[in-house]
Design goal:
The complex is a heterodimer. The N terminus of chain A is likely disordered. Chain A is mostly beta strands. Helices cover 4% and strands 59% of the residues of chain A. Chain A folds into two domains: 104 residues, Immunoglobulin-like (Sandwich); 667 residues, TonB-dependent receptor, beta-barrel domain (Maltoporin, Chain A). The relative contact order of chain A is 0.11. In chain A, strand 48 and strand 49 form a beta hairpin. Chain B is mostly beta strands. Chain B has a domain of 131 residues. Helices cover 15% and strands 39% of the residues of chain B. In chain B, strand 9 and strand 10 form a beta hairpin. The N terminus of chain B is likely disordered. Classes of the chains: A mainly beta, B mainly beta. The interface between A and B is large, with 87 and 88 residues. Strand 51 of chain A pairs antiparallel with strand 1 of chain B.
């Protein structure tokens, strides 16, 4: 390790002789809305020198004094070429104009080459417009569903917004919304994601080769940016869909200085159904809905200082009442977050961002059984789980010369976990463990990384991240005997007493070797640790899944990933292709022990029911993308294998992970027929999920019970599906835009397996007693229609 | 409390109003043959061991295949030892399913003694050991009348859990004149540990009537057998409840941790069968040596026999 640190330091020290430089810097924005463009390109014409804007739309480029033709471009926008006489440091803000249909043969080869020339690998960026053009389930544009169409990113099927990146679990993805961590990104038990596409600007996913500024998760980073709000004029966008409606209002408070955005979405199945439920119905008052609110305020003090305040609040409310049975169940869950960010430019080459975040996730089950005659409460059961984080982060970017981009910073998180708090009343008996089950932890990290462009052909990225984690009291540990049956002791920790301490040193590196103008080879290595786990009982991502922190029992999960890839553009850069191979080792993963069920935690710690093990995954990913012309889209294919090794499962023999996929194919296409009509399609094919099924049956004490086969040894039928949609731009003027979207989900009505269950039929006496298997599928062919407007 | 999870699962089904189902053929490997052992040694009693075999999950079951799964006569040799004496159990007919057992003639169960079991079957050897833990006495027994039913009700009992944590209890009942053996009661897990009541007085109620579970022969789950609603309710009433005039023995048996582990995992398996929202629950057996399931369990039993006079009066016979 010492050697590698020395090596990294060596790389990080800028060396060599550089001629005197001057810098060109500024912001690139959308001309109509004043919205900053992230990842826009700034290229010195006819050279390979260039840069992209950062996540705040800021760029900086160091050049020797002289006269340059600078090309400013971004996908979906008309490029601008400025001739700039650069003698001293200069600041130029650029506004790009959107081009609705990218039919023109725009020559932005440098931009399109970023796939080949950037040192980053395993990164895919999608503007929200691309996502919106694709068919959407029930007309709900869904960012998480779209990223599952990328190679190396797998969905676990319908009814599930959890995604799996290169064999890692759904908890191993760092999902950031304006720098705030979102713990549960799903609505309606996973059918929809919490991200309202109208409020989102763009997103970027790192499947590997994570730069050092990202940490705390071991498989991927999904970085989502909210729109800032229109700086020029009031804008109202909205949509009325089959199951939900949404409205976004944005505009300047003070033109070009301060703007706001407010976006809301709500499903209305409950409202639509309400009139049909009779007042006398025993189920009156039952219902389900979710809503989302996004809000953002940003204030530009000057070109040097900006302040952003972002907030998200979303909630699912499920209420089931049966007045006859005296039964009332409420299950609310949701996320809330607020982030305050301050951007400051010390100079055109030294940039700072300070972030303060509070983020909260809560899940609650509240069940009441009433005595219908006496009206008294017979039983009440309240179970809550959740996480609250307070987060402080300081990031710096320093560009000493065009060859180096150095990022460094530090962060601190205070976590409050409630892995499962139970309070119950049963007749006169009361249990209240809501306080003692909480777990408190501090997490802190520092990082340093340098993107070093050695020559036009060689670029090296080296970074290092160090993190510490400590769980502190108050806390009670119930110690169990070998059989995990009985308390043999309880250990009580006082406030702020250290329960567990872990640290982590995470080297990150990648290298790019350019072969020619159109192709390159890249390789990367990264090591990550993560101090939280998601314990999930089922194959589906349910809100009942528990977030549990590292403790004296649970160790941090860890990943080491090696990847190598070949990147090449074809046909004058119209086609962008890549082939990547990865290998990933995973350590200290958790699973629930056999037959564990929620509610086990009464008088116990949730983590006493876990078993621990390791895993590995390897695979090959192919990606072909066409970004320009009338026809755009991509093909992603993944060939992979993911296995787990747990001492307590099948005697330590490797078994396939539940989302082990041999083949995973996605095909998307969008075709601009004319100015009014756009058609698009999605086709997906994936090897079936694995599951554990009973293989034998036997009788004990007169009852038949099942004997299960090896873990995940059965594979369900493959998943495949075709979606189609057309978009009709009904009317477009400067003041008013109206469009219709018609989507058909699962066009050929494929009955994809959701799960399999069993039942018995017949009787022994008639000699036909047998077990039967039934497969449940969720969605048949589903058409939907959405009307979108903007003014 | 675990019911909450089932309710949740069921509701999840309800939400999926658009979901659809189809019958599928699941191509599973043939189950490996396992010996299923149900062996007990009770305080002051001889050991009793019932042996059966498992079947493949999708096998069609007939009376014949069920009969073939029972191991009887000299097909197996079953030996119990207390470390000093060896007792080769005798093949014997019994009056409950599967109507056949191996029963001891030399060793009667004693408190705090360890007992080993050895089975020779089909050229394979199976082993297990158990202990009979110290008994815990029943302090009191009472009868609770159920409203709306004349003379019917359930029992309750108190016992004092020892201060040391780690006691496991198993509750069974026997209706005299009607049943020859102790059986598991309806509607409740008959196994428990003392996590929630260590060192305290445990009030265990309701205790419904124990009954002979028999998935193979009971017809009340079989839709082909049509009963009138009256017949049905009479059946349930008689099957579940105790009534005035019944003489009932309640047995509170202390068992070792392995036995608790078997029964608690057994209940998990039973309750989660077919539920796709849980991890499959394997039944944890203490039988070793070759592929097997089941248990070898020592019972530290304390029995109280009562005569139910009426709702207020209950005579303690023994």
């Amino acid at each position: 390790m010492k050697k590698s640190i020395a090596l990294i330091l060596l790389i990080l020290i800028p060396f060599g002789y550089f001629a005197q430089k001057v810098t060109l810097s500024g912001y690139i924005k959308d001309k109509d809305t004043g919205e900053e463009l992230l990842g826009a390109n700034v290229i010195v014409k006819n050279t390979n020198t260039g840069t992209t804007t950062n996540s705040y739309g800021f760029y900086t480029l160091s050049l020797t004094p002289g006269q340059y033709d600078i090309v400013f471009s971004f996908i979906g926008y008309k490029e601008i070429i400025e001739t700039i006489d650069l003698k001293t440091n200069k600041s130029i803000n650029i506004s790009l104009e959107g081009s609705a249909i990218m039919t023109q043969e725009v020559v932005v080869s440098s931009e399109k080459k970023s796939n080949v020339q950037d040192s980053k690998m395993s990164v895919i960026k999608l503007p929200v417009e691309t996502i919106k053009a694709l068919p959407a389930f029930m007309g709900e544009v869904d960012i998480l569903k779209t990223i599952q169409l990328l190679p190396g990113v797998q969905s676990s099927g319908e009814g599930n917004s959890g995604f799996y990146v290169r064999g890692g679990g759904p908890d191993q993805n760092l999902i950031l919304l304006d720098e705030a961590t979102i713990y549960n990104a799903a609505h309606l038990f996973g059918f929809f994601s919490v991200f309202n596409a109208d409020a989102i600007k763009d997103m970027e996913i790192y499947k590997g080769g994570m730069p050092a500024q990202y940490g705390g998760r071991i498989s991927s980073v999904l970085d989502i940016s909210m729109k800032n709000g229109n700086m020029k004029e009031l804008e109202i966008d909205g949509g009325i869909g089959t199951i939900s409606s949404r409205l976004t209002v944005q505009g300047p408070i003070k033109k070009d200085t301060c703007s706001y955005l407010f976006s809301a979405r709500r499903t209305y199945i409950d409202v639509l159904v309400k009139p049909f439920i009779k007042k006398t119905s025993p189920f009156k008052g039952s219902g389900y809905y979710f809503y989302d609110l996004n809000a953002k305020l940003n204030y530009r003090f000057s070109d040097k200082d900006r302040l952003y305040l972002s907030a998200y609040y979303g909630k699912d409310i499920f209420d089931f009442k049966s007045t006859d049975a005296g039964f009332d169940m409420k299950i609310p869950w949701g996320n809330g977050m607020a982030s305050l960010r301050w951007n400051h430019l010390f100079s055109s080459t030294f940039f700072s961002n300070t972030t303060l975040v509070a983020s909260d996730y809560k899940f609650k089950t509240d069940v009441t059984m009433n005595d219908t005659e006496e009206g008294s409460t017979l039983m009440r059961f309240v179970q809550t789980s959740g996480i609250r984080d307070y987060y402080l982060k300081q990031d710096f970017t320093f560009i000493p010369n065009p060859k180096h981009t150095i990022k460094f910073g530090a962060n601190y998180i205070y976590h409050i976990f409630s892995p499962n708090s139970v309070s119950a009343e049963y007749y006169a008996m009361q249990i209240d463990e809501s306080d003692i089950m909480k777990q408190y932890a501090h997490e802190a990290a520092i990082y340093l990384g340098d993107d070093f462009k050695i020559s036009d052909r060689f670029t090296i990225y080296a970074g290092i991240r160090g993190a510490i984690y400590t769980q502190v009291g108050p806390f009670i540990r119930y110690q169990k005997d070998d059989l995990l049956m009985h308390n043999i002791d309880t250990i009580s920790y006082a406030k702020n007493e250290i329960v567990a301490f872990y640290n982590s040193l995470e080297p990150r590196a990648s290298i790019k070797i350019g072969l020619d103008d159109n192709s390159s080879i890249k390789a990367s290595f990264n090591q990550n640790k993560q101090f939280v786990h998601l314990a999930s009982l089922s194959a589906s991502t349910l809100p009942t899944d528990l977030w549990v922190p590292c403790s004296d029992v649970v160790k941090p999960q860890e990943a080491r990933q090696y990847a190598i890839g070949y990147f090449r553009n074809f046909f004058n850069d119209h086609f962008e292709t890549s082939l990547e191979i990865y290998y990933k080792d995973l350590f200290n993963l958790i699973e629930y022990a056999d037959g564990a069920m929620p509610g086990d935690e009464v008088g116990n710690n949730a983590d006493n029911y876990f078993i621990f093990g390791n895993g590995y995954s390897y695979g090959l990913e192919l990606f072909i993308k066409k970004q320009t012309g009338r026809l755009t889209g991509w093909v992603g294919y993944t060939l992979s294998k993911t296995e787990r090794i747990f001492e307590d499962v099948d005697n330590g023999e490797p078994f396939p992970a539940k989302y082990d996929r041999r083949h995973d194919l996605s095909f998307t296409a969008t075709y601009n027929i004319n100015e009014k009509w756009t058609a698009s399609m999605i086709f997906v094919y994936a090897t079936g999920n694995t599951t554990t099924l009973p293989v034998g049956i036997f009788m004990t004490d007169g009852d038949l019970v099942s004997d299960y086969g090896r873990r995940n040894s059965y594979r369900m039928d493959p998943y495949h599906r075709l979606d189609l949609s057309v978009n009709y731009l009904h009317k477009k003027t400067d003041k008013w835009e109206s469009s219709w979207n018609f989507s058909v989900y699962n066009v050929y009505n494929r009955k994809n397996p959701y799960f399999i269950y069993f039942y018995h039929e017949g009787s022994i006496s008639t000699g036909d007693y047998t077990a039967k298997a039934k497969q449940v599928s969720l969605f048949p062919v589903l058409p939907s229609i959405t009307w979108n407007f903007k003014f | 409390m675990k019911t909450i999870f089932y309710i949740f699962s069921i509701l999840l089904f309800l939400i999926c109003v658009v979901s659809c189902e189809k019958d599928i053929t699941v191509d599973l490997p043939k189950a490996e043959e396992k010996l299923i052992v149900e062996g007990t040694i009770d305080l002051d009693e001889f050991a009793m061991v019932i042996l059966t075999k498992n079947s493949s999950y999708f096998d069609i079951m007939t009376t014949e295949t069920v009969n073939n799964s029972i191991i009887r006569d000299n097909q197996a040799t079953v030996i119990v030892s207390n470390g000093i004496i060896y007792d080769t159990l005798e093949p014997t007919s019994i009056e409950k399913w599967p109507h056949f057992a191996y029963i001891g003639t030399k060793i009667r169960g004693e408190i705090d003694k360890e007992y080993s079991l050895k089975i020779l079957y089909n050229e394979k050897e199976y082993f297990a050991t158990t202990i009979i833990p110290d008994t815990v006495g029943i302090d009191s027994v009472w009868f609770e009348k159920v409203d709306g039913f004349d003379g019917l009700g359930f029992l309750g009992m108190n016992w004092t859990d020892p201060s040391q944590i780690g006691n496991n209890y198993l509750v069974t009942t026997k209706n005299h004149g009607e049943q020859k053996y102790f059986f598991r009661p309806y509607f409740s897990m008959h196994i428990m540990d003392d996590i929630l009541f260590n060192g305290q007085i445990m009030s265990y109620t309701p205790i419904f009537k124990g009954f002979e579970h028999n998935d193979y022969y009971n017809d009340y789950y079989d839709p082909n057998v049509i009963d009138t609603p009256e017949e049905d309710s009479l059946y349930y009433v008689n099957a579940f409840f105790f009534k005035y005039g019944d003489t009932v023995s309640i047995k509170l048996s202390t068992v070792d941790a392995n036995s608790y582990k078997f029964w608690s995992s057994w209940y998990r398996n039973y309750m989660t069968e077919g539920n796709p929202f849980t991890n499959p629950a394997s039944i944890k057996t203490n039988i070793e040596g070759a592929p097997a399931n089941g248990y070898w369990m020592g019972y530290g039993s304390y029995i109280k026999t009562v005569y139910i006079v009426d709702s207020l009066n209950i005579e303690i016979i023994r």
